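Service request form, structural biology core

Requester: graduate student, group of Dr. S.
Request type: structure prediction, single chain
Budget code: on file
Notes: please return the result as structure tokens.

Sequence provided:
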Amino acid sequence: MEPGNVAAWGQDWAWGVPLIIVNVIFHAFALGLINKDVLSRSKPSRVLFSHSYVVVGMAALSATVFHAVEVVSWAVVYSLLGATSDPKAAMLYSLNAMTSYGHANLYLAPRWQMTGALEALNGWILFGLTTAFLFSVVQKAWEKSLQSA
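Core staff response, request fulfilled:
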């Protein structure tokens, strides 16, 4: 997209902002369910922190699955909009944008490049939520492990 063609950015925002909102709501809801599960399963364990490792590992795995679902949602939108050449390119581009990795030589059609930047913004928000959540899980798991020591 040419920077001077600001009027076309409206469609990018019209697709991007609702997708960000849906992904953040999904992510917060899913993390809340995992948090509830962590609280119910975090019992003091006498097995030298092994239970806390499993709890943290499962929470991290669950969060990774949530991120994968969110990446797929963006890839589907890119495919529907014709912003990429094929679904595989859409998926790889989406993963690169969401993680801000960006080292693959993949680009959205010039018309949709602002949408890619919005996905990167979405990634920052989601990874921030995940980081805060995992920090909380680690604290809870370690507290339970220390209670049993």
